DNA sequence: AAGCGGCGTTACTTTACCTCA
DNA sequence: TGTGAGGTAAAGTAACGCCGC
């Protein structure tokens, strides 16, 4: 298994060959994937809708029409990825979320939880509608109607915000009686989050059709799905950076230790070399030769004790 | 020019922890 | 001493606005 680490551009990823495996085990990363890099996803979206709208706001307010159109075309598939999306990996760094059924095990046309009837949704929200629980077409219709009542222009950049002020999560709306002008952030349900998570594993960038299809299935607005994927990509990138940083730190420590070890080894080799060099320059008089067999031997005392052999001649007593 | 993704930021929610009556 | 309420910091995340491609 190779550990492919990259910071951003996967085309320039560096591969830690031999040590990566043991490193990942040694450092307890515990990845189940074969690569760590987040691929630089190239998306051309050849099948992208040619929207006639000229602004995002117009796009938002026509989203319900696109929802209808996409409903017949969108399918979530586990057998093949989106056409032009290339992804080196699907890493789930947020593994704290419990695993749910694979996406292909879920019904395609209906989200696996029953959205309450419209009346119930209204009834559960004293101050407004739970946008999570409303069918998208109804939600958008209510949104538009409310904006008309409120006198908001359709091109208002706060149109999305205003809808969320009305359509906060049930938990928040139950408690919020103040009706302040600040935006209200809805909380996606566990089921919605899990479903989006599974979709993200399939393709971390959506084309418009996929976006609309997901939005319809989850009873969210396309903009919400889009934002969720943007945030999810950001989280993935952040986690990846943290993991990379941690791994590089470990690598740095390992290399430092290796460097220290090599320095020590080098020092020992130098010492040894100095010692050998010295013995190579021993005076010839320290060598003894057996006259009969002509075997040459050195003086054992001088070699074993590293004692300068010249001292043996200080007494003027050659060994012969 | 429009659309979209990345990025930084804001606003809000949730959770854990602490203090105090 | 145990407990519940209230405050607060930190973490998580939905949403926004800007910019570049």
Automatic annotation (TrEMBL):
Annotated Homeobox domain ranges read 179-239
Q: Name one Pfam family in it.
A: HALZ
Q: Where is this region: Disordered?
A: 40-63, 149-188, 296-320
Which portions of the chain have biased composition (kind: Basic and acidic residues)? 46-56
List the molecular function annotations (GO) for this entry: DNA-binding transcription factor activity, RNA polymerase II-specific; sequence-specific DNA binding
Q: Name one GO cellular component term.
A: nucleus
Q: Which family does it belong to?
A: Belongs to the HD-ZIP homeobox family. Class II subfamily.
Q: What is this protein called?
A: Homeobox domain-containing protein
- Its source organism is Lupinus angustifolius (Narrow-leaved blue lupine)
